[in-house]
Amino acid sequence: MDKGILNKCTGVFSPNTFTAIVGPSGCGKTTMLNLLSGRLLSKNLTLTGELYANQKPTNDLNEFGEKIGYVMQNDVLLATFTPRECFMFIANMRLINLNKQEKHAKVEELIAILGLSKCADTYVGNELIRGVSGGEKKRTSIGVELLINPSILFLDEPTTGLDSTTALHVIQFLNKLAKQGRTVVSTIHQPSS
Amino acid sequence: MEETVANGRQFAFKPVDLFELTFVNLNVVAHVK
User: Fold this and answer.
1) CB–CB of A156/A69 below 8 Å?
2) Model pTM?
3) Chain B within 8 Å of A80 (Cβ-Cβ)?
4) Which of A23, A39, A128, A176 could lock onto A34 through a cystine, CB 3.0 to 4.6 A?
5) A129: enclosing H helix or E strand
């Protein structure tokens, strides 16, 4: 039995813009995000349609892997790491062309940009370990992806679980990222927040 | 992101390239057994 998940989706995600994908639960927002970020891989799925990266046809978005950042809905961070340690860990894994000093400088700059200076040495935490706030955790997750300086940033429900003020700050920050040249695409469950 | 100077060195967090993604008539069909 075949089941249609996405049907004739057409659109453009442009640089310098923050695009929000809205819709009710189960309508395929996350599926679309996963598909367009090159993460939807399954033998049980058939994908058809046309994809263009900078107006050039492409079949495999994974070839743009270094240009694509993806922030998942759930913050996948080690609870016993601090934001600084998280960034340093990712810098060591992904910024292999930089030396130790350059990585440190980049991490410190990122902490300043994200406004995480006050909590940079606090555990990320979880249900059992007291740690940073929800907004700080989300900004840490975004920072992890920003370390590789992606041209296009996908975010799956970045405001879920945040209070309206914190959600507003996260969205304002994403807007700022978009205005500085990035293509920012996000699914949003509650546009009002 | 704004360019800042850290330790006397300039780090640019600006994207290297602008990236436009266009998709036309995308369909995803799941084959359920």
Assistant:
1) no
2) 0.86
3) no
4) A39
5) none
